[in-house]
Design goal:
The protein is α+β, with helices and mostly antiparallel strands. The chain has 20 helices and 20 strands. The longest helix has 25 residues, at about 55-80. Keywords: Carboxypeptidase, Glycosyltransferase, Hydrolase, Membrane, Multifunctional enzyme, Protease, Transferase, Transmembrane, Transmembrane helix. This is Penicillin-binding protein.
Length: about 800
Amino acid sequence: MSDAPQHWAPRDPSAASATPGDGEGAAGSAPGKGKRKGRAKRPKRTGWRRLFPTWRMVLGTALVASLLLVGGFFAGYQLVGIPAANAGAEAQSNVYFYKDGTVLARDGEVNREKIRLSQVPATVRHAVLAAEDRDFYSQPAVDVKAMFRAGWNTVTGKGKQGGSTITQQYVKNYYLGQERTVVRKAKEFFIAIKLNREQSKDQIFEGYLNTSYFGRNAYGIQAAAQAYYGKNVEDLTTAEGAYLASLLNAPSAYDVVARPESRPAALARWNYVLDGMVKEGWLDPGERSATEFPVPGEAKPPNGLSGQRGYLVQAVEQYLTGNGIIDEKTLATGGHRITTTLDRKKQDAFVQAVEENVMAKRSGEREADEDVRVGGASIVPETGEVVAMYGGIDYTRQYVNNATRRDYQVGSTFKPFVFTAAVANGSTTQDGRGITPETYYDGTNKRTVQGPQGSTGYDPANEDDVDYGQITVRTATDKSVNSVYAQMAQDVGPEKVRETAVALGIPKTTPDLTASPSIALGPATASVLDLTEAYATLANHGRHGPYTLVDKVTKDGSEIELPDRKTEQTVPREAADTTTALLRSVVEGGTGSAAQAVGRPAVGKTGTAEEDKAAWFAGYTPDLATVVAVMGQDPDSGIQTPLYGAFGLARVNGGGIPAETWAAYTEAALRSSPAQEFDLRTAPGSDEPQAPGEGEAADADPSTPDGSATSPSSSTPAEPAPSAPAAPSTPPAPATPPSAPTTGTGTDGGTGTGTDPGTGDGDDSNGDGNGGSGHGLGEGFIEGVQGVRSTRDPAAVG
């Protein structure tokens, strides 16, 4: 080939003369000529595709996020160091005040004793691992998935979440704090990673066991072993270690001694720990099946909480933690100044009333007196403030708070809730008569409750198996007649009765609050404080607000927010006020007449638990609602016991010592306040006398139990439904001459002498006149004054 420059002609002759920019479709160009070579221009995204990012955008965003995470990790790792132990590692005192600012108690004595990991038995270590972090020795220091879940739930306000490793929990306990913030979680993340590189797993586990809170003011496994079982950690059994490990999840909630009602939940957690040990190969299945639950001993709190102070502090702490105001572990670190709603003078008056009317009547020579326990609570109806509480003889001698425990039946103090439900729902009897205080019911002993489809098969006994025949609701309330109120509960609808009780303030989770006719007899085990809240709602004309024990909380000069004190009309005022009007006669001449000693307008209701294991009086004036309960419990075994023979009485009933204590306290608490009258708006027609339904007139006296004449109802009562026939009434016995008075048996065990012949309810009759169905309102119906208990249906609750 020649070395001379070569001249190549373009493939397209027209290209040599084309001007820049000429392209497809240029003027003078032939079709298909002048096309520019190269990549075609991407069409613009249109329509719905514009709503979604391209893969380049997604990839770029992911790359940037990854770089930020990696950079943030390295930056955080470099910036966050392992700090010194926090101040919370040495807990401060919490100071509790009465509402007037005087000091109530301090609880700052921290119980902590550090031990070496080698001192902890292998089974106890395995129990803790099974409860809190089974992969502790094999997994990293942090659980990233659980961290992000907990952080997200904190940001979105979903509350407390678990999932942290033992390393993270130790970092939180020893180096940081219990606050739940994103910043704290981030610090915990980096410190845990660094700590895991600088300390061995055994060192971290040892630190965790020494700093964890187990309840009863016990920090660390050694302090917990002493607090719950009175022994050193080296001597703990597998079962005991599993129980202590269970407490780490919720210390106070699983203390079966302080809170007997928590036993099912504690047992479930205990079984979870043991089953986990078997699953991990740390416990032989045969040994597991033979393991029994180790009930811990009574707590031995500091002497600074002796007397009532410990009960009050315990109740306040439960209120704070139960309402989410302060986390339990945060509260345990101390430093809080807590002003309660408790009134110092009223509190002193309650203690004095119990001392004079209960404790002073006990005798060391009577074995039954050793079983006596007392619980009490007092609430201002308008505000819901708890102004006084009696928890027991002494917090250092009896750890369980009798005012807040939920394991004793409330008995007949529940019956007013049945009547409230009847009025609130406009309920009628089986034969169509409206339920009012003057409505007649069949009070025959063991009368079978009738439903729309006939017999329900439930036939509760009256107290002392007394037959009353046809009596009004008012009389049935005064005398606490079980057969009447069981039928009334069926007429209203057991579920409606339950709903009304909850609306008044009885917790819906109360054990044995079952929607059946028996609900009327009070098998539910609400606490004294629960019952006081419900009666305070009645006193406040049906307006309910949850009780409060705390007026103000501060820490380091900052005030902690408390729940708003809101009340709402949960039952109609007419229903609540009609119930109040009904309960007047219980105090004026029924089983609660001992409460008249208060010396001002008051209403109330007596109650007796099954087998007389507790006696109650629940009552109120317009400005103060109070409940007093006397309970029986063996001091050694903790088993509930009947009160037979206590105070030298055959029986202890609500109208006796409980009502007397109530009156003494209420009189002293309100001594400086003027007496107030009840301002009632009762339901229309509630005071109008009624006649018995057809077929019942022959069994009823023409006069009401209180001696007032009856008048025919404005409307003829409907015939009873064929499917729900009324139970036969007890036929009247022959009249006894006036000169031969007879002795009868009162509702709650009292005896009286009747001089009124015939079968009606006579003014002068204090008992069962001539053995018939007449009953008076005198001493024969005051609970526990003179009565002797007779055999009755075990299911009956008076």
